[in-house]
Write a structure and sequence with these properties.
flat
Length: 367
Amino acid sequence: MTQTLAIFYDAYRSLNAKKMFWIVLAISGLVVAGFALVGINEKGLKVLVWQLDTEPFTTELVSAAFFYKWAFLTFGIGIWLGWIATILALVSTAGVFPDLVTSGSIDLLVSKPIGRLRLFLTHYLAGLLFVTLQIAIFCVASFLVIGLRGGVWEPGLFMAVPLIVCFFSYLFCVCVLLGLVTRSAMAALLLTLLFWFGVYGIGAAENALLMFKLAAEQRQTAAVQIEKQPSPRQKPLPPADAPDRGAEAEPAEPKVERPPAEARQTRGPDGESRSLATAHKILYRIKTVLPKTTETVGLLERTLIDLAELPDGAFGQPNRDSAQGKAARQVAETLRERSVAWVVGTSLGFEVLVLALAAFLFCRRDF
């Protein structure tokens, strides 16, 4: 146990020596400070002492508590921790294993009575601890800002710590494997970012196909309802010797618009809806075996915000009564119905497989 703690401390100290921890921590402090300087009142947004007239975006539309929770999810989690801080953390930790196997440090470590697997896991956990401390400090500061400025104390906000660490670990395990294969921190970092963007693209494409599929199903349902409407009765032709009544003639019955036969066929079970459903099913299966980065971060939104709380037409959301708003809301509800076991469980399964392969290479290769 003493050896493990010593190696763990040495690995963390080597990470901390790069000063990236303090750089990221300082930027996180600036983000939280900017987060605290912005407020909302009955007149609109207020930045420090400057009042901005942003009607109708005032406390009459959203409460201060909801505004701070939305800002935390959108900027603090979605932009800072979900993208910028993650990239900086990958930059900090990408060289953990390449530096270990190329600098000669491993010769000293493997000469001691310690297993290679324990050595591998110790350095891996040191990289995760490096990120966990940054996220925890950021969440504590944000918790205080939301409580003091928004007037609501949200303990569910600390769910961001395990969720963001899980999200980072999906990428870190790939970076570790690539670092052992290439023995280059830069190559491992660039390939990991490429993998991340590929996974993100697959997830975005699956969400887009889901929206298109639901929209096609709505159009098909509307077409079926139109076809079920009774056809207008045709009036018999008047006899030839009947007088021309002119303006006294009864007004013609309104015509019922019906889609042409070709359009009805494309909306059938073998048409557009079925094609979109097949394409979506393929992407969904591909997405199932890959880590769900966006969905893992999105689990925090389920804890902090209910869809019913989202104001109509606010924050760039379409009007819920419009066709676009109904489709977007249906997509959001479908994504929220996906279980935590599918989002996190399958992603951790991917991580275990990648780590097992990386540990096998680390334990069997001669350095």
